[in-house]
Design brief:
With about 160 residues, this protein is α/β, with parallel strands linked by helices. Helix content is about 25%, strand content about 25%. The chain has a single domain, classed as YbaK/aminoacyl-tRNA synthetase-associated domain (YbaK protein). The protein is globular and about 40 Å long.
């Protein structure tokens, strides 16, 4: 079980007075998928959001936060971010760009404040789950609070 420690992302939420719950779960290094995380949390996979890092042809790096069961629509992501096209950044670049590793990439507290977009389905839930910045730890947070702290734009991404 992941040790429940305060991550940098948690400290940011604390400093902004945002309420959240840290939920630890057992990490399976062979399956870092949102589906696996949702199963361990005993939650609907659509309520467990994954943080994806992309590169647009015009604007450069940006972030999309989508439900765990969904595939990001790259055309919608490009359009939302003001790009003609967008691609996922290579896994090897995630740490350098965000300060986080794959499977522990939080939308809160990245090295740089990248433009961020969250799928509109987040508004269907009172609470959603996103990475708290390390593998084995999730935030349980109100979508509005996540949107406020990350300056996310709510749009259709799937």
């Amino acid at each position: 079980m992941a040790e429940t420690v305060k991550t940098n992302a948690a400290r940011i939420l604390d400093s902004r007075g945002i309420s959240y719950e840290l939920i630890a779960y057992e990490v399976d290094e062979t399956d870092l998928s949102a589906g696996s995380v949702a199963a361990k949390l005993g939650q609907d996979v659509d309520q467990v959001f994954k943080t994806l890092v992309l590169r647009g042809d015009k604007t450069g790096i940006f972030v999309c936060i989508v439900p765990g069961s969904a595939e990001l629509d790259l055309k919608k992501a490009a359009r939302a971010s003001g790009n003609k096209s967008a691609v996922m950044v290579h896994m090897k670049e995630i740490l350098e760009l965000t300060g986080y590793i794959r499977g522990g990439c939080s939308p809160v507290g990245m090295k740089k404040a990248y433009p961020s977009y969250i799928d509109e389905t987040c508004e269907l839930f009172d609470l959603i789950y996103v990475s708290a910045g390390v593998r084995g730890l999730q935030f349980k947070i109100r979508p509005d609070d996540l949107i406020a702290v990350t300056s996310c734009i709510v749009c259709e991404l799937i």
